[in-house]
Structure formats: C-alpha cells, structure tokens
Amino acid sequence: MILVSSCLAGMKVRYNGTDRLDERIHKLVEEKKAVMVCPELLGGFQTPRPPAEIIGGTGDDVLDGQAKVVDQFGCDVTDMYVSGAEETLKIARENGATTVILKENSPSCGSGFIYNGTFSGEKITGAGVTTALLRRHGIKVVSEDEFLA
Ligand code: SF4
C-alpha cells in the first residue's frame, strides 16, 4: 500500500482551504492502491489555519529539538506537527506502507524542499517533520514530482 498526501488526492485540507489535486494520485486512491493522510489534520489542526514554517532548521532538527515550527502569528505549533508526524507513522505501519508520496515544500510533507522560516517564499533544501520521521523509520518518502517523473 502507498500513503499519499490528502491534498494531492484532491482534498481541500491545505492551510488556506485549497487542494493540490493531481489526477494520477487521485486515481491511486480511487483504485484503492493508496491511502490518504494529512499530517496537519492528524496533529489537531483545522482547515483553514494560519500558514506555518520551520524556524532554525529542517524537520530533522525539529525532531531533535533543535528547531521549531511557528505560524505566521508567531505561535509555536511544534508539538502539533510532531504529533501529526507520529500519527502518520502509525497509519503507515498499519497499512504496511513502504512508499509514501507527500506534497513538496510543506513543513510537514516536504521531502526535498521546505520554506526557510521567514515567510518570504524562499526555500531551503530539507524535509518536513513528517517526512523526517518516516525516513527515520525506514519508509521511503518521495514528492509528487519524483513519483510522477
Ligand atoms: Fe497537504 Fe501535507 Fe499540508 Fe496536509 S500537511 S495539507 S497533506 S501538504
């Protein structure tokens, strides 16, 4: 089984209430080859919610307590991001998922790039919190771009 970001399958769960529908990923879900997850909703957020970025590092640094996730109003939401990552790991295990396709650039789901914590649209190389946790447990995480390439 494959796990995919809910927003890539067409669910309007992004912070601003939109999706990032990719028909090929939606088809995987329809054919029951993939299960949808949204780590941020699993962590207790609702839609819409303020955008958040990792400050001071990457998802790995967050897991190591060396960086935090903060929303655009300065509220520390690190615990909810870590909780969402743990819940996603649980679902991956329950479904025997060895490959996960997550939305690039997200502070949860990014696998190659994330925003740099200044809310300026600038990106850095690195993974989001959920991706980092899944990889630490031997699960392959790719972005929609890599999967569809
Ligand atoms: Fe999509 Fe992941 Fe953000 Fe949820 S946490 S909206 S699945 S990018």
UniProtKB/TrEMBL annotation:
InterPro entries: 2-thiour_desulf. This is Uncharacterized protein. It comes from Domibacillus iocasae.
